[in-house]
Model the fold of this input.
Amino acid sequence: MAFDLSEPIVLHLLLAAALGGIVGLERQLRQKPAGIRTNMLICFGSALYTVISYQMAGNVGGDHTRIAAQIIPGIGFIGAGVVLRERGTIIGITSAATIFMMASIGMAAGAGMVWTAIFATLISLASLIALGKLEASVGLDARLMTFHLTTTGGAGDVVQKIHQIVQDSQVPAHRWKVRTAGGETMVEFDAETTLPQERELLGKLGATGAHCEAGPPRS
Done:
């Protein structure tokens, strides 16, 4: 090996790549914006910058943390890139937070804090997998749903009543569509709700005499 590529450095970089790949695999399997390659490269790159920061300061003098410190603001640009606005709702916050976490794990691995990096990876996986399943099982995971209502009566009165119910439920709704045909008024809107919120909202809307249903948005 070259004099600048010692065995500890190789092991630290390989560890960062492995830990990033493990977390990235979970993101890939759930079809999230940042997958295996993204998380692996972020973790590996953060570790490499940490190593470079330490090595350059040791060879030419200076602050050992100067280069590594720039990872934190730099990773924010990548995290912002995976936060998307889709049909009025924000998605990708968890993926952005994962990217931020992978950068810190890479820095820990690059600094030789092996067990800290491994422990942080396990905590990250626990929050992504275990807590994710818990949220889904109890209906706490917010989902974008499209609500369809069909009722009789004047469109103005119906829409005003529905708007008031949604507003009282404190559920942000958007993409409202209203049309009338054959004496019926059809109202459609999107809202990001948890399962309990969805059931409560459907119950209140159904109490108006309208036929209500909700489902995932049509692509």
Observations:
- Helices lie at 7-29, 36-60, 66-69, 71-82, 93-110, 114-138, 155-168, 195-206.
- The mean pLDDT is 81.
- The chain has eight helices and six strands.
- The chain has two domains: 7-138, 143-215.
